[in-house]
């Protein structure tokens, strides 16, 4: 095998090894999909929503008849004595008596002041409330996933910045040793370079620890094994075209907290309808088919049996209940008033949160541009400083200052992107427009 073939084989093997050991690259879309499938709180909210949906039936509202089967069997063993009018008597020890009855009964409330219809509408509103709570939970958890994800992106950037500064510190230490070996630098310069390199390595270790813990937190939000390793993308794409007026308009239509308050008012109004229904009469139809049999060891009749159909109706109307009807209606009306106040309060809170978050969002967008310029300037300054340091025209202190300025500029730029993304996420969460 010639040298060229050996070289090609080594390249292929190296590529295979790299591919095998490469970490999974988790995109934000994949993270949200996993969270929607696995997150425990989302699962609970989904089940609660299904429970509310399951409860919406005409039977649960009381519109359907009810059928009941029943059976009763009574037995007794007694010592009995019977005295007749003519003075004669009959006695029997251990007399057995048996009574058996069974049948089916049917009842149907055909009118209750329209309460059953208000109850059905209320069940439908409760289903909507469950859907709104599910949406609120999903928005909250997807927001947490987004925040944790982009925190990892930011920390990856910080790791890259620290890796860069360690490379530079190693170069500085090598230069200091070379200069010391030829007598152009003191031992102090070498020691200072070594101390700074050690400090950078400590900072890198701390950052790796923070990065690993952030991965564990994201895995927790995704409800998967905290030991699963992965990487995230390096890009932070901030939507810089959000408009406050549009967000306020969307929030009025889609914010789940406000939606829940509006539904609660509707539920309170339907509760008042049910309370008012108690002023009207209630009409219930009844029917049934019963069979009864009895046996007696002593008496004029030893056996008796009957079977047949019974039917009828029952009507009732509240005439006076100690003014409880008036009190219940008054309470129900105050509940509606409270619901309206809660809507107004939620509107104010929502507008305040959106306005505050939007101002923070605008500031963070400006900081991105500013910190991007600062990073470019700091990089250029470091390159010039490094060239001067190599020829010995600046001090180690000036070089270290330029080095730290560059690292800090990269970190600040990454932080600005992260904070702007958090502001975007917060605004979309409030407006109910996070895409998932």
TrEMBL record:
UniProt GO cellular component terms: cell outer membrane; efflux pump complex
The keyword Ligase belongs to this UniProt entry's keyword annotation: no
Keywords, comma-separated and alphabetical: Cell outer membrane, Membrane, Signal, Transmembrane, Transmembrane beta strand, Transport
Signal sequence annotation: 1-22
Protein's cellular compartments: Cell outer membrane
InterPro entries: OMP_efflux (IPR003423), TolC-like (IPR051906)
Gene Ontology molecular functions: efflux transmembrane transporter activity; porin activity
Highest taxon of the lineage: Bacteria
Pfam family name, one: OEP
PANTHER family: OUTER MEMBRANE PROTEIN TOLC
Family: Belongs to the outer membrane factor (OMF) (TC 1.B.17) family.
Protein name: Outer membrane protein TolC
């Amino acid at each position: 095998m010639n040298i060229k073939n050996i070289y090609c084989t080594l390249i292929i093997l190296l590529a295979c090894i790299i591919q095998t050991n490469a970490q999974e690259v988790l995109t934000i879309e994949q993270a949200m999909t996993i969270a929607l499938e696995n997150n425990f709180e989302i699962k609970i909210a989904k089940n609660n929503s299904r429970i509310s949906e399951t409860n919406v039936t005409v039977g649960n509202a009381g519109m359907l008849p009810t059928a009941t089967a029943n059976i009763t069997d009574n037995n007794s063993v007694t010592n009995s004595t019977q005295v007749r009018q003519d003075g004669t008597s009959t006695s029997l020890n251990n007399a057995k008596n048996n009574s058996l009855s069974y049948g089916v009964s049917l009842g149907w409330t055909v009118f209750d002041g329209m309460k059953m219809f208000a109850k059905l509408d209320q069940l439908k509103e409760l289903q909507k409330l469950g859907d709104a709570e599910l949406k609120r939970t999903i928005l909250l958890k997807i927001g947490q996933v987004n925040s944790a994800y982009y925190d990892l992106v930011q920390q990856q950037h910080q790791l890259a910045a620290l890796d860069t500064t360690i490379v530079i510190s190693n170069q500085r230490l090598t230069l200091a040793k070379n200069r010391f070996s030829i007598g152009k630098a003191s031992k102090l310069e070498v020691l200072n370079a070594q101390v700074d390199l050690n400090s950078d390595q400590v900072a890198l270790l701390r950052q790796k620890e923070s990065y690993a813990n952030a991965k564990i937190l994201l895995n927790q939000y995704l409800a998967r094994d905290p030991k699963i390793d992965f990487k995230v993308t390096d890009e932070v794409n901030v939507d810089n075209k959000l408009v406050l007026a549009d967000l306020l308009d969307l929030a009025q239509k889609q914010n789940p907290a406000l939606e829940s308050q509006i539904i609660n008012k509707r539920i309170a109004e339907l509760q008042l309808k049910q309370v008012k229904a108690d002023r009207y009469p209630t009409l219930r139809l009844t029917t049934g088919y019963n069979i009864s049999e009895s046996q007696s060891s002593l008496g004029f009749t030893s056996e008796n049996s009957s079977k047949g159909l019974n039917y009828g109706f029952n009507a009732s109307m509240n005439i006076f209940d100690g003014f409880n009807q008036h009190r219940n209606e008054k309470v129900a009306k105050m509940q509606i008033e409270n619901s309206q106040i809660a809507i107004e309060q939620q509107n104010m809170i929502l507008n305040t949160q959106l306005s505050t978050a939007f101002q923070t969002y605008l500031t963070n967008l400006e900081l991105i541009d500013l910190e991007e310029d600062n990073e470019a300037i700091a990089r250029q300054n470091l390159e010039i400083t490094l060239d001067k340091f190599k020829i010995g025209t600046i001090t180690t202190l000036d070089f270290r200052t330029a080095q730290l300025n560059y690292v800090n500029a990269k970190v600040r730029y990454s932080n600005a992107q992260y904070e702007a993304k958090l502001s975007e996420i917060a605004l979309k969460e409030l407006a109910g427009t996070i895409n998932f």
